[in-house]
């Protein structure tokens, strides 16, 4: 595959996996948790590096998952102490992210790990960091990791589709049916953390947040069916990744930034043109003469 092809594939995998996870973030009204976890995983990544002195490997995933779960637990704990949910998120993620930034500045040194890289990523380097796979050959490590994460996300959604659906729409009903709501919550936070850190090195925190929230929010405007919303959100994520790349080439600017911008364009088109919830349909509907 060509250099451009690997970049597009990697970005598309980010858009697809984040798009699927983002649907449940939107339905659970936890969109800001995406922002919180995408920033707080930096602390887990930095601590994992300080312990192992390696920038790749399973320890990075483990550190990120722990940081993501710590964020979820602390937000839940502060909220139980009568602190507003959005305030809890703001306090937790800014504090954990700040600790990560301080550790980078004071402990990491000259390693290829800095705040700019954490925020924007560097997807142009992805095709050069490869691993050898049997029967396939050399593939970018980021693309391979993202493919594994996508498979895990798909299996988790398919295996517990009914549970995710009920706990997202009506947690009280789910609890009355014997579904372990809190366990499902923390399993979901683990999926968010894994997806975030798999995308983190390639595209950075800004694009991860954009891909987790905006395609799902756009899909929400087009349909009320969960299955259709999942398909649309994944498709919007891929569309944003591909169109964002060519916008970046056209403008000679940041690829990750352009992909995040493309998610905004997809949302604006959906906000204006959705036949049911779009702005134009709301304006036109009152003037439509009902048939006899």
Q: What's the helix and strand layout?
A:
Blueprint: H1 3-27, H2 31-52, H3 58-80, H4 85-108, H5 115-120, E1 130-133, E2 137-140, H6 141-159, H7 161-169, H8 171-176, H9 181-222, H10 226-251, H11 255-273, H12 279-284
Antiparallel strand pairs: 1-2
Gist of the model:
The chain has helices at residues 3-27, 31-52, 58-80, 85-108, 115-120, 141-159, 161-169, 171-176, 181-222, 226-251, 255-273, 279-284; strands at residues 130-133, 137-140.
Describe the structure.
With 292 residues, this protein is mostly helical. The protein has one domain (3-124, 159-280): ABC transporter involved in vitamin B12 uptake, BtuC. It is 78% helix and 3% strand. The protein is built from twelve helices and two strands. A two-stranded antiparallel sheet has the order 1-2. A hairpin with a 3-residue loop joins strand 1 (130-133) and strand 2. Helix 3 (58-80) crosses helix 9 (181-222) and helix 9 crosses helix 11 (255-273). The relative contact order is 0.16.
N- and C-termini, Cα separation: 59 Å
How many domains comprise the coordinates?
Answer: 1
Q: Report the top-level CATH class.
A: Mainly Alpha
Would you tell me the overall average pLDDT? 83
Please identify which CATH superfamily we are dealing with. Answer: ABC transporter involved in vitamin B12 uptake, BtuC
Helix content: over 70%
Major sheet attributes: 2 strands, antiparallel
Count of helical segments?
12
CATH T-level topology: ABC transporter involved in vitamin B12 uptake, BtuC
Assess the beta-strand content as a share of residues. under 5%
Instruction: Tell me the CATH architecture.
Output: Orthogonal Bundle
Q: Helix/strand/pairing class, anyone?
A: mainly alpha
């Amino acid at each position: 595959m060509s250099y451009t092809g690997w970049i597009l594939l990697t970005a598309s995998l980010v858009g697809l996996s984040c798009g699927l996870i983002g649907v449940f973030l939107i339905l659970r009204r936890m969109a800001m948790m995406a922002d919180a976890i995408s920033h707080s995983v930096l602390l887990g990544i930095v601590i994992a590096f300080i312990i192992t002195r390696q920038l790749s490997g399973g320890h990075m995933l483990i550190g990120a998952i722990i940081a993501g779960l710590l964020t979820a637990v602390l937000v839940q704990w502060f909220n139980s102490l009568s602190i507003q949910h959005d305030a809890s998120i703001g306090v937790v993620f800014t504090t954990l992210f700040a600790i990560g930034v301080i550790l980078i500045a004071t402990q990491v040194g000259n390693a290829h790990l800095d705040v700019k890289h954490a925020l924007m990523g560097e997807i142009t380097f992805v095709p050069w960091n490869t691993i050898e796979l049997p029967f396939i050959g050399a593939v970018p490590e980021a693309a391979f990791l993202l493919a594994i994460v996508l498979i895990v996300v798909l299996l988790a959604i398919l295996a517990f589709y009914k549970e995710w659906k009920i706990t997202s729409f009506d947690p009280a009903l789910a609890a009355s049916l014997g579904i372990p709501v809190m366990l499902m919550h923390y399993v979901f936070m683990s999926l968010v953390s894994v997806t975030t850190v798999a995308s983190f090195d390639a595209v950075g925190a800004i694009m991860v947040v954009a891909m987790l929230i905006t395609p799902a929010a756009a899909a929400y405007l087009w349909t009320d069916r969960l299955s259709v919303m999942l398909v649309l959100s994944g498709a919007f994520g891929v569309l944003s990744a591909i169109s964002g790349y060519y916008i970046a080439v056209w403008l000679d600017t940041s690829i990750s930034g352009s992909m995040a911008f493309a998610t905004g364009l997809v949302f604006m088109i959906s906000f204006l043109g959705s036949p049911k919830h779009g702005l134009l349909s709301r304006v036109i509907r009152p003037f439509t003469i009902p048939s006899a």
